[in-house]
Backbone:
C-alpha cells in the first residue's frame, strides 16, 4: 500500500542568512572557519550588523529542511517537523517552507512565543562555508513536534544530526526512530557536521542504537564516528552501524553501500563558489532517487550531479525547474 509521504524529515528550523565574507572578516571576528558553531543571540546580532545584509540571501533552512526542500523540488512528497516562534521570522519560515511544496506540523497563528532560530552562513573566497547559529526556539524542539500520523504514513524518516545537542531534541530523535521502526518506516540519519560527531559522540551512539537503515556522512565524520584513520577502515566499520550508507568525498565524489556492494560515484566537473548545502542537496536528491524507483547507483549519480550544480552558485538550493531538468539530463 502506497504511503502519503516519501520522506518525513525532522530538524532545526533556522532562517538562513547567506552572505559572502572575506578571510579578514573571519579572522577579525575570531570565527572558527569551516564548522557550524552555536552562538548566543548577542554575538550573532553583532555579526549580522557587521555584514552587508541587503546583499545577503534569506530563506527557510536548517540542514534537514534544505534536504527535504531539495527532495521536494525533484518531485518527492515530503513532510517536515520543526519549531518556530510567533515572530516575523517564524511566519516567513512557514510560508517559505510550504511554498516549496513541503507539508509541515506548523500551524499559522499557533506558534509559541519566543525567537525563531537563525543561521548566518558565511562563504569565503575559497568557496568554504562557515556557519554561526543561534537556535532560538528550536533549541526547545521536542517530541511534541512529531506528527505521528504523518510519520507512520511515510516511507522514510530522515533525522538531522544537529538535534543531538539538546536533551529534549535528542529524546525526540529516539522517539521518532522507535515509532518509525514500529511502523515499518525506514530510518535515515545524517551526522550533519563533524562537530556533532566530535563533541557529541556518546549521544550520537545513543541515538543510532542498534543501527539505522540509511546513514549519510562525509569522510571526516565517518572516521570520527568509527575511531579510524582511513576511509577504507571506516567504511568497513560503518557496515555494523547502518544497513546502507552514503559517504560523500567532496571533489572525489561519493561512496555508496547498498547493503551488498560498495559503489563509487564519480564527481561531476564544476567550478565551486559556495559549498553551502552541497551535502544537504546530495541527501535530498538521493532520497528522491531511492523512493522513486532508482537504484542506489543511479540515485548516487543524480545526487552527485545535483551537488555539483549547487556548489557552482551561491545558496543551498537549486530552482525547482532546474532540479527536475537534471533527471532528464542524466538519464534521457
Residues:
Amino acid at each position: 500500500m502506497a504511503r502519503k509521504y516519501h520522506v518525513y524529515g525532522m530538524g532545526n528550523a533556522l532562517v538562513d542568512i547567506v552572505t559572502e565574507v572575506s578571510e579578514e572578516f573571519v579572522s577579525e571576528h575570531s570565527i572558527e572557519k569551516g564548522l557550524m558553531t552555536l552562538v548566543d543571540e548577542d554575538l550573532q546580532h553583532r555579526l549580522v550588523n557587521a555584514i552587508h545584509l541587503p546583499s545577503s540571501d534569506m530563506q527557510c533552512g536548517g540542514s534537514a529542511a534544505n534536504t527535504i526542500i531539495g527532495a521536494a523540488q525533484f518531485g518527492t512528497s515530503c513532510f517536515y517537523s520543526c519549531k518556530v516562534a510567533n515572530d516575523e521570522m517564524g511566519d516567513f519560515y512557514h510560508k517559505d517552507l510550504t511554498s516549496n511544496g513541503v507539508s509541515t506540523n506548523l500551524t499559522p497563528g499557533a506558534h509559541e512565543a519566543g525567537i525563531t532560530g537563525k543561521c548566518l552562513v558565511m562563504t569565503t573566497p575559497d568557496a568554504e562555508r562557515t556557519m554561526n547559529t543561534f537556535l532560538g526556539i528550536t533549541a526547545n524542539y521536542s517530541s511534541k513536534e512529531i506528527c505521528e500520523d504523518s510519520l507512520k504514513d511515510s516511507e522514510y524518516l530522515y533525522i538531522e544530526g544537529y538535534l543531538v545537542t539538546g536533551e529534549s531534541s535528542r529524546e525526540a530523535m529516539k522517539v521518532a526512530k522507535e515509532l518509525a521502526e514500529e511502523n515499518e518506516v525506514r530510518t535515515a540519519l545524517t551526522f550533519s557536521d563533524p562537530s556533532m560527531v566530535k563533541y557529541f559522540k556518546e549521544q550520537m551512539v545513543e541515538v543510532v542504537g542498534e543501527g539505522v537503515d540509511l546513514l549519510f556522512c562525509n569522510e571526516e565524520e565517518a572516521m570520527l564516528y568509527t575511531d579510524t584513520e582511513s576511509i577504507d577502515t571506516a567504511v568497513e566499520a560503518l557496515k555494523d552501524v547502518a544497513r546502507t550508507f552514503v559517504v560523500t568525498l567532496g571533489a572525489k565524489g561519493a561512496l555508496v553501500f547498498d547493503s551488498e556492494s560498495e559503489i563509487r560515484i564519480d564527481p561531476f566537473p564544476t567550478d565551486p563558489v559556495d559549498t553551502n548545502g552541497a551535502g544537504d542537496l546530495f541527501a535530498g536528491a538521493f532520497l528522491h532517487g531511492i523512493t522513486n524507483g532508482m537504484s542506489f547507483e543511479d540515485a548516487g549519480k543524480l545526487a552527485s550531479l545535483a551537488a555539483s550544480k549547487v556548489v557552482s552558485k551561491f545558496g543551498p538550493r537549486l530552482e525547482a525547474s532546474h532540479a527536475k531538468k537534471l533527471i532528464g539530463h542524466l538519464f534521457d
